[in-house]
């Protein structure tokens, strides 16, 4: 009789319960695809008494999460979360014990992925993390395996469902950010403390993982330029629409792009042309685009979070392990991953959208235009809207193609200006 793959499951939240349900409901199908049964044998969580909607009595309960590494299991699944603490301790102990490790923990991988990959390769065991990026979308498998013959020029996409839900709502209903965020929290799309999502950190964790796999580079989360959507106004969404764009929080990574040597990684609000596939990604959906030199543009799109999609990705990793199908976690041996300097974003060229809240008085537009001229920024269009309730006026500028350092210099020239009543908003136009 073929021996089952024994799984110890740490973390019984939404996704952990989902993993058990997927294994139960699709048991026969999964066994046939994996070539042998996959059985949860031990579980661990903070609250033993909590009703999770699944029968846990059939599993051994282990109170000490780190001790899951010593359970009578072949693979440990970690669904605790957090870049350090119990999750990292469990990962280290599991790999040191010579057991496979599956995780959905993008923060831990962004900060410690290279260390864990080396430990897994040294022990000759799998480290799998499909669920860490874009939920149920098989983008990691697609890059690591399906596009393995290609040199990837660029990988980019919508990597945070919470932000995309908020932006889609603002776009459809003309409402401001704070109001839509409160609704997203009430519906469970946003955490009570949404900072990691709305400030771009969650997307940056995922981008650093994708960049490593796409370019064969060591994960470099510390080099990701990060800004979120906290300061967006309904007026920005409306202005973008009038110009033929939609606003999306997009993570972009490129290695040795023309005029910008090194690894470029950034999460930033973008104006996306209406005819681009990302412009039509709405709600809590994720989408990733990869551009290969032979395969062309690949688009991965689907549910980026939630019980079903994320649990599906975890179980897909377990099926690969049951088949014995796994290789280096980052598509090539950890010691062969290149260490690249962070690219100078100032040398990147592109068009920009700039929004200013200014005092309604004579000379303000001339001051802004002079700052742009003196910094070498060419203005394609300038639009001034009527006065707001506080007496300020919104000025929106779209620039011609040019180096980003010039835009940064223009904004620096305007820093502290008495004409500005708030911080400017700078969004890149996706090209």
Can you give me a brief rundown of this structure?
The chain is of the alpha/beta class. It has helices at 14-25, 27-34, 85-96, 106-123, 139-146, 161-173, 177-187, 195-198, 201-215, 234-243, 307-323, 364-375, 404-414, and strands spanning 5-10, 38-44, 60-61, 75-78, 100-103, 127-128, 152-158, 225-226, 245-257, 260-273, 285-292, 296-303, 349-350, 352-359, 379-387, 392-399, 402-403, 425-429.
Descriptive report:
With 431 residues, the protein is α/β, with parallel strands linked by helices. It is 35% helix and 26% strand. It contains 13 helices and 18 strands. Strands 7, 8, 9, 10, 11, 12, 14, 15, 16 and 18 form a 10-stranded mixed sheet that branches. A 6-stranded parallel sheet has the order 3-2-1-4-5-6, sandwiched between helices. Strands 13-17 form a two-stranded antiparallel ribbon. Helix 4 links the parallel strand 5 and strand 6. Helix 1 crosses helix 11, helix 3 runs parallel beside helix 4 and helix 4 runs parallel beside helix 9. The longest helix has 18 residues. The radius of gyration is 24 Å and the shape is elongated. The protein starts with a strand and ends with a strand. The model has no long low-confidence stretch (mean pLDDT 93).
Task: Itemize the secondary structure elements and their pairings.
Layout: E1 5-10, H1 14-25, H2 27-34, E2 38-44, E3 60-61, E4 75-78, H3 85-96, E5 100-103, H4 106-123, E6 127-128, H5 139-146, E7 152-158, H6 161-173, H7 177-187, H8 195-198, H9 201-215, E8 225-226, H10 234-243, E9 245-257, E10 260-273, E11 285-292, E12 296-303, H11 307-323, E13 349-350, E14 352-359, H12 364-375, E15 379-387, E16 392-399, E17 402-403, H13 404-414, E18 425-429
Parallel strand pairs: 1-2, 1-4, 2-3, 4-5, 5-6, 8-10, 10-18
Antiparallel strand pairs: 7-9, 7-11, 9-10, 11-12, 13-17, 14-16, 14-18, 15-16
């Amino acid at each position: 009789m073929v021996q089952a793959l024994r799984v110890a499951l740490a973390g019984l939240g939404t996704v952990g319960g989902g993993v058990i349900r997927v294994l139960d409901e699709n048991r026969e199908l999964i066994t046939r695809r994996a070539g042998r049964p996959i059985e949860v044998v031990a579980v661990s969580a903070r609250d033993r008494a909590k009703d999770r909607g699944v029968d846990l009595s059939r599993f051994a309960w282990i109170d000490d999460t780190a001790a899951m590494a010593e359970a009578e299991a072949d693979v440990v699944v970690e669904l605790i979360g957090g870049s350090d603490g119990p999750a990292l301790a469990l990962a280290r102990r599991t790999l040191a014990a010579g057991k496979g490790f599956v995780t959905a923990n993008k923060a831990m991988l962004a900060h410690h992925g290279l260390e864990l990959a080396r430990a897994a390769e040294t022990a000759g065991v799998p480290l799998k993390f499909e669920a860490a990026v874009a939920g149920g979308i098989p983008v990691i498998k697609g890059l690591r395996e399906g596009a393995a013959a290609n040199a990837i020029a660029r990988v980019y996409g919508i990597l945070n469902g919470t932000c995309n839900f908020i932006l889609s709502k603002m776009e459809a209903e003309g409402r401001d950010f704070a109001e839509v965020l409160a609704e997203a929290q009430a519906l469970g799309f946003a955490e009570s403390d949404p900072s990691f999502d709305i400030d771009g950190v969650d997307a940056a964790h995922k981008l650093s993982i994708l960049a490593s796999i796409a370019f064969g580079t060591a994960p470099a989360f510390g080099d990701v330029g990060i800004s979120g959507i906290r300061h967006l106004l309904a007026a920005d969404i409306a202005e973008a629409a009038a110009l033929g764009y939609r606003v999306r929080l997009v993570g972009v990574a490129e290695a040795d792009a023309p005029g910008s040597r090194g690894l470029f990684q950034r999460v930033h609000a973008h104006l996306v042309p209406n005819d681009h596939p990302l412009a039509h990604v709405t709600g809590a959906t994720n989408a990733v685009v990869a551009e290969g030199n032979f395969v062309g543009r690949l688009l991965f799109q689907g549910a980026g979070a939630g019980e079903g999609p994320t649990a599906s990705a975890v179980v897909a990793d377990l099926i690969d392990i049951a088949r014995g199908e796994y290789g280096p976690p980052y598509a090539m041996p950890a010691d062969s991953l290149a260490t690249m300097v962070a690219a100078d974003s100032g040398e990147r060229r592109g068009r920009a959208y700039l929004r200013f809240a200014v005092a309604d008085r004579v000379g303000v537009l001339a001051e802004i235009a002079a700052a742009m001229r003196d910094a070498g920024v060419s203005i394609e269009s300038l639009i001034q809207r009527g006065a707001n309730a506080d007496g300020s006026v919104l000025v929106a500028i779209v620039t011609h193609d040019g180096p980003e350092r010039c835009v940064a210099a223009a904004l620096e020239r305007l820093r502290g200006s008495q004409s500005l009543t708030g911080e400017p908003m700078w969004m890149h136009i996706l090209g």
